[in-house]
Amino acid sequence: MSLQTPSIEFFQGVAEDLSGVSLRRNKNTGMRNVLMIFESLNALEKFNSFTKGSAQNLSLIDSEGKILVTPNSLKMIFGGDEGDELKRVECTFEIESDSHWERFSRFMERYAEANGMEFGKR
Fold this sequence. Notes:
Layout: E1 7-11, E2 14-16, E3 20-25, E4 32-38, H1 44-51, E5 58-62, E6 65-69, E7 73-79, E8 85-95, H2 98-114
Antiparallel strand pairs: 1-2, 1-5, 3-4, 4-8, 5-6, 7-8
């Protein structure tokens, strides 16, 4: 395994800074839902083309390789006096299989450690 600093990218080569993550599991279906929150975007200039569909995946990159995630929802929340300041971006996606969940968890553990965050189960 190579020593790859974990990163999250909407666009190749432009790493984003994750502000928070929320993980939920539907007790009826077993489906796992992930909400990633970004308080700012380094790729904001390119983001317009993302919302129009030219970039369809979110890349989660670490020493094991790359995970390509297709968001179910991408919400940009604006505020400020003029209503034009980006407050945060909320990206949601689902994880169906246990093996994909385990891989995602390993990524999040590495990302959290590399970025001074905590990742764990309640």
